[in-house]
Each structure stands twice: as C-alpha cells, then as structure tokens.
Give the backbone structure.
Amino acid sequence: MTTSPHTWAAAAGHVAAGPPGRPDALAAAGPEQRYRIGTGARPRPPGRAAARPAQQRRCPARTGAIDEQTWRRAIAAIEAADEVALACHVSPDGDALGSMLALGLALRAAGRRVVASFGDRDFAVPRLLRFLPGQDLLVEPARYPAAPGLMITFDVATVERLGMLEDSARNAGELLVVDHHASNDTASGFGTLRLVDPTAAATAVLAEELIARLGLPVDEQIATCLYTGLVTDTGSFRYGVTPAVHDMAGRLVATGLATDEITRELWEGNPFGYLKVLATALERATLEPLAAEAHGLVWTYVTREDRAAVALPYEEVEGIIDVVRQAGEADVAVVLKQDDDGLWQVSARSKGAIDVGRACTALGGGGHPRAAGFTSHLPPDDTLALLRPLLTRM
C-alpha cells in the first residue's frame, strides 16, 4: 500500500515541518524533530558523558549540486513505492552497507516494507561489519526481487558492481542511485534518478540527507550505521573532511552511539593470521621513487596461497593498503590482492599529487582521485606495467 508522508511521520513519532524535499522545511525543523537524542537502550559506560543536544541548524556535509527537482522526484518515488528494494556493491565496505541499512531502518520504522541485499555469490556480511544493526533486513541475492518497482543503490559507481543484483537493477521500474564516486558521472552513470555528489565525503552523507528530507528521525541504531559509513570512508576523519562533516558526526554521536565500540569493531579486531599475511606483504613491498611522475610508488601483493597458509578469508586483507600507504617516499600506494577465484583486486591510494581514480577508471575500475581500485586478470608485474604510465598528476 502507499503511505503518505504524514502517515510516515506519525508512524515514526514525528511531525514534519513542511513538505518533504523542501530545504526551508528542513531549516525550520529543529534537529530534535529528526534525531532521538540519547534514547538508546544500551547503558552508558562509566565515565562517558551524557549525550548533548544537537546543533540547531543542520548543514549538509557536501557542497555539490543535486538540484531540488531531483530530490523531490526521489522523495516522491520512495513515498509511492509499495516496497523499497535496497542494494549496495559487492564485498560491501562500511559506507556501502552502513548507508543502505540506515535508510532501511528508517523506512521500516516508518512502517514501510523494505528488503536489502548485495550481490555476492558467497553472500556473507564481512566480519568487521557484523556489529551493524538492521541486518535482519538482508536477504540473499536469490530472494531479492527480480524486477523491483523501486530499487535504490548505495555506493555503487557502475551497475556491474551490483554483481548478482545487476539484472534486478536493469529490470527495476525506478532505479535511484545514491553515490559519491567521482567516476559515477552523468555521461557514463546508470539509474533513472541520480543522487550523486562527488563532493560528499561518503555515501552516508547523502543517506543522512535523504532520511532528513523524508522527514524521518534518526535513532542510535540508524546513527551507528551512518557513522560507520562516515568514519570508514574518511579514514577516521583524515580525508575529505570539512566542518560540515564534523557537524554531521556530532549529530550522530548525540544520539548516544558508542564511538569507542565502533572503532574497536572496525580496526582493532584483526585475527592473528592477518599479522602473518601483513608481514609477508610488507617483506615483498617495492618502492619506486621515480614512478608516478617522480612522486613515488610503493606496491605489494597478497596471493591466495598467502591467505590459505593461515586460513585467512579474502575480506581480512582489505586493511593492508592503509599500512603500505604510510611510506613517506611515495605519493601512491598499490596493493594487489588475489581473491578466491584467482583474480587480482587492485587497491590504489594517493596522498594528493596523483589522480588514482582516473588511472583505475581507465583500467575498467573507478573510485575517487585519492582512493580507487580495479580488477585485473594479469599477474602483479603485468598489472603494474599497465598502471604505471597512467599515474599522472591531479
């Protein structure tokens, strides 16, 4: 059945200040109308300060232009849908899964029918993200609607990144794309409605704004999902950070979420086998000071055999790039990780001089100027031979 925005607000215990999608309505509505401050059932640990009231004005944590007509059309599509089918990219990270589950929880709290998934053949939430609330919304790809009336994708730069859900996207009556990848441009992008803003520090920024424009409140569980997306895609608030990003973090923390617990789950729970594989990767790391237009390149690789020796799943090696990039002599860091199918998943990072997003897009991948990736069927040396000449200045 179709639910009006007024029914939604009543179901969520919220009275909207004006028509959804209107920026004046958002400005007039105080954050107490959208955020449940410190209402979580989890007891506050000793020594933790009580939640503080949020700021009186909400400033979107982005500067790019998504026109108001597009926002209104997106809101209208969600309001008219009998069921909302959510999806994020394969091998989901914190921003993809967190953004998707945040909107799913907000819609379900408003009485809407929601289904969510990602298109991996071996369907499993990555270990470090299993603390996220809302996972009961998830279904395996085989149970996902084949032709959803409304499908919303999160953090998906190309339709191929949906994996087993690609056909559902192509068959959807309305396909709303919520993303912040620079490579997801209008010319090559997909979707019938596009909320794409490369200036957003994370897709979670757009998810928060979408929830606000729907007039739905944010409780501690929703905030936990959004904060996870924000903190992972900004590298613990090191990259792409603006005052508005910290304002958003403040709004989320004010709900009472446990930032220390989120940090521990994300970065302090690696299995011992990870240390063994990391040591092997660092031992074979190569520094090329003259590569990347003399800004320097450091790279290494991890094989299936490296992981098999310590029974380490592929998902556990994602963090190796964050160690390799610490080499001060190199602007660019690259880690090639062999997955269970034998393909090489390439992660590239830049400290600001070189545009790795452009390079990875040229090789069939995508991402941002400072963080990107692609898939290679070639061994590491041959893959680097293709990548090196593409590592050029911003």
Remarks:
- The two ends are 49 Å apart (CA to CA).
